[in-house]
Design a protein that fits this description.
With about 290 residues, this protein is mainly alpha-helical. Helices cover about 75% and strands about 0% of the residues. Strands 1-2 form a two-stranded antiparallel sheet. Helix 2 (about 40-55) packs antiparallel against helix 3, helix 2 (about 40-55) packs parallel to helix 4 (about 95-115) and helix 6 (about 165-175) packs across helix 8 (about 185-210). It is globular. The N and C termini lie far apart (about 40 Å). It holds the Pfam family BPD_transp_2. It is found in: Cell membrane. Belongs to the binding-protein-dependent transport system permease family. LivHM subfamily. Keywords: Amino-acid transport, Cell inner membrane, Cell membrane, Membrane, Transmembrane, Transmembrane helix, Transport. It comes from Plectonema radiosum NIES-515.
Length: about 290
């Protein structure tokens, strides 16, 4: 295999693992709450900034990631209490919810710029040399990102398949009204959905900061690949979103070697692949909950 191509595939796997974590949170909120949350990318950014802030206060990067996740979850739960629960109570239309989520995204992004400025930030970490693996230069941070993403995905699988709350979440995603009359505490499931989505999304943002830089628009540039992963993988299907995220991450990176296509076209190529697949399989690669 061409060394350049192999290098791009490795980069794509690292990016795909980050998109996967964020896309899982996005597909869970849609599958359970029927909410297309365009603020999801900015929650990812918020998690990265919380991690950066704590890390630059002298706190260990892994502890900073953990606490950054707690902060992100707190803001997500606050938005649930102040916005989304009220919108559900008045049975707001999906169009209203989308417009509100876009407004929330702009609010979070501009709040980040107001508080921390618009310039790029970096974690306070020692510089580590890239590893030479079979002729490929693989930054150690990319390996850490992939390892952490795999751990998070395995933990999510265990939670969804083997815990009481995971089974309740799957029941609510299949049929909310039936789950409610069956005695499932839907309000508790909703809070747990935000906790899981916030934790995974914040982790994705923190890991993205490891391989790039922390900047106010980082989540905005990932929101389209996130939605593409959710749709391509089957709406509401977390496993489908994970598989589609790796496909999109690799396609984005590999497309840069095509003559005439630079890095600025990566998202366009990924969305084109999504459209191409949907023309053949309109419901996505895997069965969704919708």
């Amino acid at each position: 295999m061409n060394v350049q191509l192999a290098q791009l595939i490795v980069n794509g796997i690292a990016v795909g693992s980050i998109i996967a974590l964020a896309a899982v949170g996005l597909t869970l909120t849609y599958g359970i709450l029927r909410l297309s949350n365009f603020a999801h990318g900015d929650f990812l950014t918020l998690g990265a900034y919380f991690t950066w802030l704590l890390n630059n206060l002298g706190i260990n990067i892994w502890v900073s990631m953990l606490l950054g996740g707690v902060g992100t979850v707190a803001v997500m739960v606050l938005s649930e209490k102040l916005l989304w629960s009220r919108m559900r109570s008045i049975r707001a239309t999906s169009t209203t919810l989308i417009i509100m989520s876009i407004g929330l995204a702009l609010f979070i992004r501009n709040a980040i710029i107001f508080i921390w400025g618009g310039s790029n930030q970096n974690y306070n970490l020692p510089i580590t040399p890239a590893l030479d693996i079979a002729g490929l230069k693989v930054p150690q941070n990319q390996l850490l990102v992939l390892f952490l993403a795999m751990l998070a995905i395995l933990a999510l699988h265990y939670l969804l398949q083997n815990t009481k709350i995971g089974k309740a979440m799957r029941a609510v995603a299949d049929d909310l009204d039936l789950a409610r009359v069956s005695g499932i505490n839907v309000d508790s499931v909703i809070i747990w959905t935000w906790i899981i989505a916030g934790t995974l999304t914040s982790l994705g943002g923190s890991m993205y900061g490891l391989i790039t830089a922390v900047r106010p628009n980082m989540g905005w540039f990932l929101i389209l690949p996130m939605f593409a992963s959710v749709i391509l993988g089957g709406i509401g299907n977390p496993y489908g979103a994970i598989a589609a995220a790796f496909i999109i991450g690799i396609v984005q990176e590999v497309s840069t070697i095509i003559p005439g296509l630079g890095s600025q076209y990566k998202q366009g190529v990924a969305l084109f692949i999504m459209i191409l697949v949907l023309l053949i399989r309109p419901k996505g690669l895997f069965k969704g909950t919708i």
